[in-house]
Specification:
The chain is an alpha+beta fold and about 170 residues long. The protein is built from five helices and eight strands, in the order βαααββββαβαββ. This is GNAT family protein.
Length: about 170
């Protein structure tokens, strides 16, 4: 497996739309309803999905598009910020370790190219596969977010994970 992250190209927009707006592709934990079909193109035309406050990269394995990783800047206080990150792996590529490796690569990228000391990721408490992937990628479970996210007509508990810059030295 030679996972890499790469910028989004215009020809990737249908793939991103599929991952974020097709209920058969988003997966149980990412389906939030149909999305504006023009939103991704507008964002891509604005900044290529790479900005100072966040971005999206394609997860690729050779010539295959595997999924996406995303991140956004969160203000911690007047003097600092941290990143919140997430990912979606296409259904045909799930369960093969791609998400673990992509999260590891994104954490390294964010620490290498910003002064942030913390990266957060969260998932629903019933998404055990994502919890395992985050732990394998070097993230530490911090706690349960009671009623932290609304999806499919009801509130769901979540689990919060983090990695700080010093954790990179301990990540396999």
């Amino acid at each position: 497996m030679t996972i890499r992250l790469r910028p989004v190209g215009e020809d990737d927009l249908p793939f991103l739309y599929r991952l974020t707006s097709d209920p058969d592709s988003t997966g149980e934990f990412q389906w939030y309803g149909f999305q504006n079909p023009h939103r991704l193109r507008e964002r891509w035309q604005d900044n290529g999905m790479l900005g100072d406050d966040g971005g999206i990269l394609i997860i690729a394995d050779g010539g295959d598009d595997i999924g996406l990783v995303s991140w956004s800047k969160q203000v911690a206080n007047r003097a600092s910020y941290y990143w919140s990150m997430g990912l979606i792996v296409a259904p045909e590529h799930r369960g093969r370790g791609h998400g673990t490796e992509a999260q590891r690569l994104l954490a390294r990228y964010l620490f290498d190219h910003s002064t942030a000391n913390r990266i957060e990721a969260s998932t629903e408490i019933t998404n055990v596969a994502e919890q395992r992937a985050l732990e394998k990628a070097g993230f530490t479970r911090e706690g349960v977010l009671r009623g932290g996210g609304f999806r499919a007509g009801r509130w769901h508990d979540g689990v919060l994970y983090s990695m700080i810059r010093a954790d990179l030295d301990e990540t396999p």
